[in-house]
Amino acid sequence: AWPFADRSPTDAARAAGRRSPSEDAAKRLLHQSGIAVPRGVVVGSAAEVGEAVARLRGPFAVKALSPDLLHKSDAGAVVLGAQGSPGVRAASDHRPVLVTLTLSAKK
């Protein structure tokens, strides 16, 4: 059984009229289950970028937040390698976004 609620995250999302849980919600649940996920923060506006980015070290992945976008990269809604507040602000295009650390493969 799912340990965090009376129903699964997918069922809760569908009850709210969405096709799937948000990436942010899914990552929080994975983290609560002990699964490592990249640190990140939801940024609702360009004005919030500076404070949010100050708590993380980049480079950053900037992903649009929308319940209608399941595959963000297919829609061109992902920017990888954004540097600092200016890069994240430019990548956010003044819409709500999820800012996460960009992970690089170890060689």
Please give the structural blueprint.
Blueprint: H1 9-15, H2 23-32, E1 40-43, H3 49-54, E2 60-64, E3 78-82, H4 84-92, E4 97-101
Antiparallel strand pairs: 1-4, 2-3, 2-4
Describe this structure in words.
It is a single chain. By secondary structure, the chain is of the alpha+beta class. It is 30% helix and 18% strand. It has 4 helices and 4 strands, in the order ααβαββαβ. It has helices at 9-15, 23-32, 49-54, 84-92, and strands at residues 40-43, 60-64, 78-82, 97-101. A 4-stranded antiparallel β-sheet has the order 1-4-2-3. The longest helix is centred in the N-terminal third of the chain and has 10 residues, at 23-32. It is globular.
Report Rg: 15 Å
Summarize the amount of helix as a percent range: 25-40%
Helix and strand pattern: HHEHEEHE
Across the major sheet, the strand order is: 1-4-2-3
Q: Give me the number of helical elements.
A: 4
- Residue fraction in strands: 15-25%
What distance separates the N and C termini? 38 Å
Low-confidence regions: none
Number of strands: 4
The outline comes out as globular
